[in-house]
Amino acid sequence: MAIKTLSAKNAAALDKDLMSIGAFSIDQLMELAGLSVSQAVYRVHPPTRGRRVLVACGPGNNGGDGLVAARHLWHYGYKPTVYYPKQSKNDLYQRLSTQLKNLNVPFTEDFPAALKESDHVVDAIFGFSFSGKVREPFPAVIEALSSTSIPVTSVDAPSSWNIEDGPPSSGPGSTFNPAVLVSLTAPKPLVKYFKGRHFIGGRFVSPDIQKKYDLDLPDYEGIDQIVEVGANGQKL
Amino acid sequence: MAIKTLSAKNAAALDKDLMSIGAFSIDQLMELAGLSVSQAVYRVHPPTRGRRVLVACGPGNNGGDGLVAARHLWHYGYKPTVYYPKQSKNDLYQRLSTQLKNLNVPFTEDFPAALKESDHVVDAIFGFSFSGKVREPFPAVIEALSSTSIPVTSVDAPSSWNIEDGPPSSGPGSTFNPAVLVSLTAPKPLVKYFKGRHFIGGRFVSPDIQKKYDLDLPDYEGIDQIVEVGANGQKL
User: Which cofactors does the annotated protein need, by name (chains A, B) (predicted)?
Assistant: First the structure.
């Protein structure tokens, strides 16, 4: 059976619906998305395996999810470090950064040096709205994520991948296949190229929205904000 | 050893600090507070014990926490019903209500009838800013919560209790002692009169704020948003 995925266009429309008819604020959605990511990291890489988590944040909403995840990881007992080279002037992102600074979470500008000192990496660089070419300073970061032996958890999409067509045929990201992917709300078409552990997160989608976008989401268990699925999105 | 509690005055000041120097939005804090409440309900009363949860919401922030908890409970597989007789015109509360309506969560105006059809009740009527007299239509609701045999989980304070002095000496609430209390951020002085299961929720307090308010919070475990303490707030 084919997996029901959410195209880039529909992911954007669904996000818009959540904030209009769904009446969610971006603060709420980002809090729950970041919380999902933090729970996936805890599941695959509990603090006993190494507390040093490097969180790479891009300039948009995917980066915001990463900032929220970093805060929750700190509260779980991890030692997160944040790489956030293109900081948005948007009030929300500035507040999420302040929340981390109040916990004395370090922000680094040297990704390769920080990577060497890490046990796990969160890739919150680009999400479902990414397309085209990876802009500076991220090509080298994607290259480092592709070649590192440290496990990487990608948020919504392995950064640099085309949402429909998967990894680029050449250049940064062409050999990138992270250990873990957290698909927010629903898997995107790119999951057919993914080979690692795969979770769905974002336990806030109403039945109406599931129906409108023809999603077939697996049941979450207990109070979990994530549910594990097969690499390509199939129910387990 | 005396338990460190947070006075009504300091609880208000801490809340203000969270939103100013802490840089949290009310949306974020309410989401995490309501999530804590939902996790406590799941812990003490899993859905296998009965899915019908009546959530009584007051006009302020405590009611907002209840609205968030009701949504998470729905996602956990409960069948929440909301009693929210004094609905705020504040945009946030209206959005939280819409989020529930989108899940077809029923809103009732008949508290006694709804109580008869419930397995568990969440008391999100009044929180740390309550003082003075219980206003209509809540006296009868507090009386019903005092005499019902259905377990009640109170959010931050058993509604009608004075934050410092505990249950009123007479009238509604004088015999109210809920089965469960979720103290948000830290226990209030009223916990010395409380006799049930007690959780602390709100896993977002920074070490600086803990220090400023001389709090001595227990460690949360794993990814939990709640931690159980003794009835009067002592660490277990």
Answer: K(+)
Q: A129-157 burial string, b = 16+ CB within 10 Å, else e?
A: ebeeebeeebeebbbbbbeeebbbbbbbb
H-helix or E-strand spanning residue A16: helix A8-19
Q: How far is CA A65 from CA A26, A76, A126, B21, B160, in A?
A: 11, 17, 10, 21, 39
Q: Where are the domains of chain B?
A: 8-229
Contact B3, B233 (CB under 8 A): yes
**Which amino acid, residue A38?**
S
pLDDT at site A100 = 98
As assigned by CATH, the class of the A8-229 domain is alpha beta
Cis peptide before B167 (omega within 30 of 0): no
Question: pTM of the predicted model, to two decimals?
Answer: 0.98
Contact B230, B200 (CB under 8 A): no
Per-residue pLDDT tens over the stretch B42-92? 999 999 999 999 999 999 999 999 999 999 999 999 999 999 999 999 999
- The H or E element that residue B229 is part of is strand B226-229
CB of B23 within 8 Å of a chain A CB? The answer is yes
From the list A23, A24, A203, which residue is nearest B75 (CB)? A203
Identify whether the C-beta of residue A201 lies closer than 8 Å to the C-beta of residue A39.
yes
Contact A207 B103 (CB under 8 A): yes
Chain A touched by B90 (CB under 8 Å): no
Tokens of A194: 């993914």
Contact yes or no for A29/A19 (Cβ under 8 A): yes
Interface of B with A in 103-162 (CB under 8 A): 103
Cα angle value B186/B180/B25 (rounded, 5°): 40
